Amino acid sequence: MRTEFLALALFTASALYGQSSCPTQAPFGLWIISPGCPSPGCIAGSPLHLTTYELPPPAPPPQPCPGMPCEPTYSLQPCDKVTWHFGDGTPDVTVTGQATITHTYAAAGVYSPHVTISNTLGSIQGPPSPITVASNPPTYVDFSPAAYTVPENAGSITFTLVRSGNLTTTATVHYQHDLYFNSSLEQAEAISGDLTFAPGETMKSFTMKIFDDHVYTAPFTDSVSLSAADGTLIRSSSAQFILTEVTPQPTATVSDVRVAEGTATPNTADIVVTMSAPISGTVEFLGVPADGTASAGSDYSVYNDVCDIPGGAVQCVIHFPIVNDDVPEPDEIFTVKVHTLGWVGPRFVRDTATVTIVNDDAAIMPRSQQIATGARLTLTLDIGQPPPSPLTVPLQSSSPEVLEVPPSVTIAAGESTAGFTAHALQAGRSRVTATVPAMNVSASLITVIDAVSVVADPAAAAARPGSDTTVSLSFQPPRATAQTVSLWSTRPDVAAVADALTIPAGGKATLTIHGLANGTATIWIVTADGLSFSVEVTVADGATVASIDPPNAPANGGSSVMLLGQGLDARCSVVFGAVSAPAVTPFVGGLVVAVPPHAPGVVDVTVACGSTRIVLPNAFTFFNPRRRAAG
Q1: What is the pLDDT of residues 277-308, one digit of tens each?
Q2: Average pLDDT of the residues in 582-588
Q3: Contact 273, 309 (CB under 8 A)
Q4: 191-195 contacts, C-beta under 8 A, 24 or more apart
Q5: H or E element: which one contains 512?
Q6: Residue 9 scores a pLDDT above 70
Q7: Which residues are CB-contacts of 129 (< 8 A; sequence separation ≥ 6)?
Q8: In Å, how far are 32, 42, 76, 397 from 36, measured between CA atoms?
Q9: I need a surface site. Which of 2, 93, 143, 334 has the fewest CB within 10 A?
């Protein structure tokens, strides 16, 4: 392990070159040898300047080195001993602190010298570094030509080797072709052999068999290698060969798809890619969708949009999941264009498929409804996609004694909906369903209740902040049993009520409203059957008017009305439009007001009580009284 301290020590040792601090560390690293041969190469009998150096690591270490020791390259120290092993049978030579040495190889051949670097702290031995030493003058053997292109059904390739340079000696070379990395794609045999050129001989050849795979693929490219162990120089160590395709390129098509939308388990649109013939190796395809009337995300999903056809096969399927819902809607479409991924693939004669999402949802609308006994209700059957011809659909009521429906309804050609009438016969519930082939039909739930209303007296109320007001509640017609109604205020900060109130059988109940702050609120009264009624409440510090009862009178005057509210007393005056009331009489709940004559029409009512002035816009109507028939 090396630390930053060790790196600092190494730097200090270099600065104190020649002092007793050498060595500072043991040798390390991968030390190889460079022959430094001049052109055309290393020649037998000529001195070679051999240099050893450390092969650099794959990448420089990070600086600084967080969490791990730094690994700089090793620099040869003055006290290091370098022992050279030349590999030619000559004695080893040891030098101190030097990375270069001169050596002469007497004979041509391939030698593998290596070095050992040592000091008192340790040693390291480098790997063999092959050096080719040529004869003097050298002899050369090369491919001629260095590249071959033939059709895959040619049967074989003959490679030619040409010798040049010194022709007075023999020259032996080794040729080799290994199997392709993917044996299933192999189209050339594995061969290996030696060729020896006799003195004066300049040309030799060898032949390699090739195979037609009888399937379409990319041009097959590989190479044959050449080497020598006797010092023969090879300027081009390999010859490339290319086998061109003779099998016609297959074609491919995709088919249109019709798929039902699906219910709880969504369906998938399956785009089938079909090739006319197999292709060697796996072919990958990508489907790229484009919205039509169907939209990605809301109608279909895109996450499994590729498929592979393995070698020897001709089909694969790209899947697009359909997003299901229960909404009746017209059939929708989107398109998928298929592309080949990679260098090799078929030629598309049809690359785009149209996907039709077939609507399989229908519904009876509204989905739920509450009606009174004896009432009639119009229901609508929606099938989403208009039929090409009239479609008669059977109807059913789950409780025909509660709700009566016709036996069927007919949807006209080109239409997607049709209405029908249901008749409420007695209190209860009934589910209305329809039978549409190949569709999921959502039913309509109809609740039939006996007609009833909640009567509030008075119909509107007024209160001051901090005070209460009351309203009498009763059923009309009266109920035979006590009924509990739910209560809630739209502005509980203005007016508050209890959560519930029980109205006794055939009687009345008192609703107490607590005034809290100035403002208006609506008190909602909801029966057990779900019927809703309301009382309007006004809360104010001064005088308030909740309602006028009745809100109309004959235009010739002479009648009386009541103004209901809070803080209304003898101080108050009342004006109808621009005409003052001739008499105002206070009582516990408000004022009894004499109505003056006035032209027919709707008018404002203004109430003045001391400094308080209240305007009720369009609150009162004057009408012409009916004339009595003569006699």
Answers
A1: 999 889 999 999 999 999 999 999 987 789 99
A2: 90
A3: yes
A4: 191/224, 195/161
A5: strand 508-515
A6: no
A7: 32, 33, 34, 112, 113, 114
A8: 13, 8, 19, 102
A9: 93
- What's the pLDDT at 59? 52
Percent of the chain past pLDDT 70, that is, above it, reads 92
Cα–Cα distance between 253 and 347 in angstroms, integer?
9
Residue 319's pLDDT band (cuts 50, 70, 90): very high
pLDDT at 231 over 80: yes
Find the range with the poorest average confidence among 26-30, 151-155, 334-338, 600-604: 26-30
In sequence order, what DSSP letters do the residues of 549-616 get, joined into one string? ESSEEETT---EEEEEEES--TTEEEEETTEE-S-EEEETTEEEEEPPP--SEEEEEEEEETTEEEEE
Q: Which CATH architecture has domain 251-358?
A: Sandwich (2.60)
Phi first, then psi: what are they for 220, rounded to 5°? Answer: -85, 120
Q: Please, which residues have CB within 8 angstroms of residue 526's CB and are 6 or more apart in sequence?
A: 485, 486, 487, 488, 532, 533
CATH class of the domain at 549-623: mainly beta
Cβ atoms within 10 A of the Cβ of 495, count? 28
**What gap in Å lies between CA 471 and CA 459, rounded to an integer?**
8
The CATH class that applies to domain 139-244 reads mainly beta
Over residues 467-525, the pLDDT tens digits come to: 888 999 998 888 888 989 999 999 999 999 999 999 999 899 999 999 999 888 999 99
Distance CA 371, CA 403 (A): 10
Over the chain, what is the mean pLDDT? Answer: 88
Question: pLDDT (tens digit, 9 = 90+) per residue, 75-126?
Answer: 899 999 999 999 999 999 999 999 999 999 999 999 999 999 999 999 999 9
Question: At residue 303, what is the residue type?
Answer: Y
Cis-peptide, bond into residue 23, ω within 30° of zero: yes
Q: Is 56 exposed, middle or buried (0-12, 13-18, 19+ CB in 10 A)?
A: exposed
Ordered by start, the domain boundaries in the chain are 4-134, 139-244, 251-358, 361-446, 453-539, 549-623
What pLDDT was estimated at residue 568?
Answer: 86
**Span 453-539 CATH architecture:** Sandwich (2.60)
Instruction: Give one DSSP letter per residue of 116-174, joined into a string.
Output: EEEETTEEEEPPP--EEEE-SS-EEEEESSSEEEEETTS-EEEEEEEEEE--SS-EEEE
CATH architecture of the domain with residue range 361-446: Sandwich (2.60)
pLDDT higher than 90, residue 209: yes
Pairing label, strands 612-623, 552-554: parallel
Note whether 139-244 and 453-539 share their fold.
yes
The CATH number corresponding to 4-134 among 2.40.10.170, 3.20.20.140, 3.40.50.10580, 2.60.40.10 equals 2.60.40.10
Check if the beta carbon of residue 213 is closer than 8 Å to that of residue 187: yes
Q: Which two tokens stand for residue 452?
A: 């009833």
Cβ–Cβ under 8 Å, residues 415 and 447: no
Task: Count how many residues are written for the chain.
Answer: 631
